[in-house]
Amino acid sequence: MMPPRLTRRSFLAAGAALAAPYVVPASVLGAAAPSNRITLGCIGTGNQGVNDMRGFLQNEDAQVVAVCDVNTGSYGYKTAEQFLGRDPARGIVDSFYGGRSPSGRYRGCGAYTDFREVLARPDVDAVVIVVPDHWHAVMATMAARAGKDIYCEKPLSLTVADGRAMVEAVRRSGIILQAGSHERSHRQTRFACELVRNGRIGRLKRIQAVVGPWNKTGPTGAWTPTAVPEGFDYEMWLGPAPWAPYHKDRCLYNFRFILDYSGGQTTNYGAHSLDIAQWGNDTEHTGPVEVEDAGAEFPRDGLFTAPTVVHFKARYANGVELECITRDDNVACRFEGTQGWVEIGYKGFFTDPPSLKTSVIGAGEIQLYESNDHYRNFLDCVKSRREPAAPVEVAHRSATLCHLGNIAMILKRKLRWDPDREEFPGDDEANRMLARGKRAPWHV
Ligand SMILES: NC(=O)c1ccc[n+]([C@@H]2O[C@H](COP(=O)([O-])OP(=O)(O)OC[C@H]3O[C@@H](n4cnc5c(N)ncnc54)[C@H](O)[C@@H]3O)[C@@H](O)[C@H]2O)c1
Fold this sequence. Notes:
Order of helices and strands: HHEHEHEHEHEHEHEHHHEEEEEEHHEH
Helix content: 25-40%
Shape: globular
Bound molecules: nicotinamide-adenine-dinucleotide
């Protein structure tokens, strides 16, 4: 018998000290026994937070024990009809587990406004961080220090410096971090990258990465702040970002169009399409050596500041040219080689020659990391301590590529980049844009 207060987490720690295997055998606890489940705290339960939470709920060996959001609950997320936040999330969790426990023994899920209370719970194994990008680094580094494994939504970071700090925090603490770039768990994307990596399109010459044009329009001109709604902790929403007056279009969902909190569609979609580019190009642990604006457009005034049209080019040391562009298209990423092309997109997968679609990657060829379910892969890696499909360094390099694009588009000039030193050689103006100050008391 396990002592009643010995959680899966403390059992694993004790097991590690005794050099016992990491995974508690089902024979000891029963496959779905509460203490054999990975306990999750979901931080940020808005548009994507609830999607991710529902994804984890489907896994028998995970249990959501805490939800956290600074919004008690409101309409007005991606669509006006979405009612999201802390209370709706708790409702989803409680009715899911409550419905499965007709005996009435289910005790309910904790609900918090302050994520530090979730991190302080010793019975939480892992956290799912699905808050605006300006919070990712602070929360993830604190979670790593608290020894929690992390599923962190993409883009990994708000700045290059934040991403590097996250990589180091994860390495130091030995925790598992899976970034939310879920195309890493798509069979076709993996296959497309394997075709490129194995030379099926000859020598790779050019990559086109597309970002969606689905921008929203915020208040323009001299807009007027609005009152903070009841049940919304605005100070805690702003957190490390510069103080600014409240407007509903600053916060829920639309934060991604404001550069204080995110990188616009460059990072929103780029964290997918540019991540695929890095995967196929075999540059996951490095980056380009040159990046330049190619005609990006920004809002003239108003609340939103992120590019409305993304367009930049980059060049890698291996000679590959990359173009990132806003387009309403099937294509997420297109690889062009000396003998054909491969296109992975929102509506499917296309190749030239068409026969490449049925090509078989042989046992002696490059086989990329196989995962077919991003949530499942994270949970498996929490148990095995194996590197997940979208690990922190890879996600950091993909986010860096997005940030470099934004910096080049803002400065409107060609920049040289040193991917080893992670700096623009001899360019103080550009280097200053690699990091941002954080409002006290927040830091990484
Ligand atoms: N993987 C994907 O395909 C995908 C899709 C959409 C969004 N995302 C990512 O998910 C993240 C969130 O995006 P979203 O669309 O869900 O935004 P959202 O605004 O709909 O939700 C964010 C939630 O976080 C809450 N929040 C803000 N600060 C908080 C804090 N300090 N503590 C607790 N909660 C806090 C907000 O109140 C809100 O409910 C972003 O990084 C985004 O890029 C990923």
